[in-house]
Write a structure and sequence with these properties.
alpha/beta; 3 domains; ten-stranded mixed β-sheet; six-stranded mixed β-sheet; 14 helices; 23 strands
């Protein structure tokens, strides 16, 4: 079949295009912004991409059009598809029908940790001989890719709670037919599509309700909301956590510069000792979830232990981009206040003697609003210096609804951390670069490119 993807250069859409191509379909598409790395990835696979949305791109008509979730009504290609009655669908529906149905679906969901946990789950099952297919919302460094298609009977997928398409406002994960589901945690997020925390919990409740009776829910019991959801599951529940009350528990978590070690107990009985290059309590939970899920799937225990040790994480998750003149530059995707807090806690434990400098760009739709104004204030306590950039496209929200960077900087200072507001990436580099010295760890937290700040810092330091 000929699949045509509108919005093909988005991370998930480009990965779907690769999966379709790997399965033997003819694939093409269009996007408004065509640039690396997705454009080069698609080009390398022989997938033609049109720059800009034009009706002529749909002549001759493809067999089916996949409309990305960021594509609205009014898009000229969407309007033509509707007028011409060309069959159309969503990316999530294609994943279900082309790749997941008929396989054992392992879905990783939750507010935090999805990408890392999905990547680790795929790696563990790969090393254990399952040969899983997968789709991840980031580049898994062990595979050097965000997707893979195999003849194996298992499909591992990151379960996104964001909406599916303009014509399907339900979460993507409602399409993924979970047999084994990992639910790490549930917090309020995505204020642009969820009215409140109850709306978020309802979405996850519906997801849990998809798991068949023969299936398994791997439930993060350190999250109160997950405990509530697990109590209503119709399947087997395997609880995990580092606090009391979970069946699977990680204990004696020790963090060193090369990662961490921890012990696992199941119902109070020693299960094994594990080591991983990852760091932080949140990553201990991610590892524990995968260990429990792998056990439920019958994976060889020693293989699981070895694969945790050889796991190379995901790009943009505490990724060390460079070490220059004794200064470490780290890139991280954190944007929710909990993710910011846990990332900085982990870095403080991993590099206890370094001066920790946190650079934060409020970029996601939720982080630019006042919703988390108070929560962000306490998220930077483990940093020595917090540099807060201006909101990405602040005009998107009325002034009274925006996160106040002035208030945030003041609140961070009140909690004992040096804080400064510097609006742009170039100004941050100009101000900070000459003041960095050996023994500094700089972590840049943004869910976007942030104007190439990482490379600019490296250039200034090494210059």
């Amino acid at each position: 079949m000929h699949y045509y993807l509108i919005g093909i250069c988005g991370t998930a859409m480009a990965s779907l295009a690769g999966l379709l191509r790997a399965k033997g379909h003819h694939v093409s598409g269009s996007d408004e912004h065509v640039y690396p790395p997705m454009s080069t990835m698609l080009e390398a696979q022989g997938i033609p991409v049109s720059a800009g949305f034009q009706v002529s791109n749909l002549n001759p008509a493809p067999d089916i059009v996949v409309i990305g979730n960021a594509i609205p009504r009014g898009n000229p290609e969407v309007e033509y598809v509707l007028d011409a009655r060309i069959p159309y669908t969503s990316a999530a529906a294609v994943l279900r029908d082309e790749f997941i149905r008929g396989r054992h679906s392992v879905v990783v969901a939750g507010t935090h940790g999805k990408t890392t946990t999905t990547s680790l789950m795929a790696w563990v099952l790969d090393r254990a001989g399952f040969a899983p297919s997968f789709l991840i919302g980031g580049v898994a460094e062990n595979f050097g890719a965000s997707y893979r298609w195999t003849d194996g009977s298992t499909f591992v997928i990151e379960g996104d709670e964001y909406d599916t398409a303009y014509f399907d406002k339900g979460p993507k994960f409602m399409h993924y037919l979970p047999d084994t589901a990992i639910l790490n945690n549930v917090e309020f997020d995505h204020a642009d599509i969820y009215a409140d925390f109850d709306a978020i919990k309802l979405a996850f409740r519906r997801f849990v309700n998809l798991i068949p009776g023969r299936g398994t829910l791997i439930a993060g019991f350190d999250s109160t909301a997950v405990r509530e959801l697990a109590a209503r599951a119709f399947c087997r529940v395997e609880s995990f956590g580092i606090e009391d009350g979970a069946k699977w528990r990680a204990e004696a978590i020790g963090i060193q510069p090369d990662g961490m070690r921890f012990r696992v107990r199941v119902d109070g009985t020693a299960f094994g000792e594990y080591a991983t290059p990852l760091a932080g309590n949140f990553n201990a939970r991610n590892c524990l979830a995968v260990i429990a899920a792998a056990e439920s799937l019958g994976a060889d225990r020693e293989s699981v232990r070895e694969s945790l040790l050889s796991f190379r994480s995901v790009k943009r998750r505490m990724e060390v981009r460079a070490e220059v003149e004794g200064i470490r530059i780290i890139d991280d995707f954190a944007h929710h206040p909990t993710a910011v807090r846990e990332t900085l806690q982990a870095l403080r434990l991993r590099y206890p003697d370094d001066r920790l400098i946190a650079i934060y760009e409020p970029r996601s739709l939720t982080s630019r609003q006042r919703i988390f104004q108070h929560d962000y204030a306490s998220a930077f306590v483990d940093a020595d210096i917090a540099v807060i950039a201006d909101l990405f496209d602040p005009s998107r929200f009325a002034e009274q609804d925006r996160l106040s960077t002035e208030e945030l900087v003041s609140a961070i200072r009140e909690r004992g951390t040096e804080a400064i507001f510097i609006p742009t990436a170039d100004e941050i580099v100009w101000h900070l670069g000459p003041r960095l010295h050996r023994g500094d760890t700089v972590v840049v937290m943004s869910n976007g490119g942030f104007d190439g700040i990482h490379d600019k810092l490296v250039k200034v330091i090494g210059g």
